[in-house]
């Protein structure tokens, strides 16, 4: 039997469901944790940037799991982080086209600012 969350859990950002997801994550190995978080984040990101959702999700999954859970709870934080990743991708394309030799790593640009209630 798989530890994959039910479909309703994957498509909602309800704080109660996020709490349930936290419990499921605690019992799962790291790779499965990232899979579960990615499955939860992807549909939310797809609503914001459909054409780049997979790339953005992959980049955000490099963040700490606790930060990812906060993104699931806060649509504003998620939107801000998605926009930040989009800007990094645009900057990366510009640098690549200009023949720049700078090393751009997405984590250098993602803020770790977290609003604590």
Automatic annotation (TrEMBL):
InterPro entries: PABP-dom, PABP_HYD_C. Residues 17-94 form the PABC domain. SMART domains: PolyA (SM00517). This is Polyadenylate-binding protein.
